[in-house]
Amino acid sequence: MTIQEMIMLAVQASIVITVFSYGLDATLDDVLYVVRRPRCFLRSFVAMFLVMPLLAVGLDMAFDLHHEIEVALVALSLSPVPPLLMKKQGKAGGRESYGLGLLVTMGVLSVVITPIGMMLMTQAFGRQFELPLGAIALVILKAVLLPLAAGMVVQALLPRVAARIARPAAVIGTVLLVVVALLIVFASRHAILALIGNGTLLALVGFIVAGLSAGHWLGGPDARDRVVLALSTASRHPGIAVALATVNFPNEPGVTAAILLYLLVNLLVSMVYVTWQRKRVGPAAAA
């Protein structure tokens, strides 16, 4: 097994462990939170799958971006919520039930929405974008649905065990992810630096700030919901984005570096938003 394969395996393990820890505390009401609220669902859908793809097209027209950045923005705009985002939403005072409901609902819908979005992007960019339904479904199944369901089953059958292992599982998943993320960034540092220029950082900051703003505005009257939708709109699943980019542009390894650059910029910009919201909403608001 190569070092790259070991790193990818560690990334997948950290995500599975973290989502499993969500399931240890989750209820069916949490999972169905978005589905049972049509207005909430509509606002979330518009912010994530209409506003962001249009923004990716607009930024491509406004800036002379590296081709890798163009592809990364398209791929990210069509990707669902990343499974690890709930921790950040909780720190900002977001409603945990809404965050989990978005994770599940938009993840399942992305199996259909992402291919449709790629068809529309083909028309907008004049380039062919495709990704098999099975590839998206497999990522969502392995990274979200199965570990979440496993955690909920343990909670239902062994509630005391679930209560004891929920915190350690979450810590293990987080520590593993941080270590792996640092290794990936270090290994890709030269490719990331090579992409900076031609308005790249400005475009990425604009993409993220616009996502935060759209989600915050469409999040509804409750500040806890605005936090969740803002972060969910601006933060997308890097695994699906990389898969989409790899399938469509197999000879352009720089696209992965572009997505990593987006993650770094997103981390910095989102920290400002989270700090602001913690002062307004309060940390770890109750669901």
UniProtKB/TrEMBL annotation:
What does the UniProt keyword field contain?
Membrane, Transmembrane, Transmembrane helix
What membrane topology does the UniProt entry give?
A: Multi-pass membrane protein
The transmembrane residues are 6-28, 40-63, 98-121, 133-158, 165-186, 192-215, 255-276
Name the Gene3D superfamilies for this protein: 1.20.1530.20
Q: Where in the cell is it found?
A: Membrane
Q: Which InterPro entries match?
A: BilAc:Na_symport/Acr3 (IPR002657), Bilac:Na_transpt (IPR004710), Na+/solute_symporter_sf (IPR038770)
**Phylogenetic classification of the source organism:** Bacteria, Pseudomonadati, Pseudomonadota, Betaproteobacteria, Burkholderiales
Q: What is this protein called?
A: Bile acid:sodium symporter
PANTHER family, from UniProt? P3 PROTEIN-RELATED, SODIUM-BILE ACID COTRANSPORTER
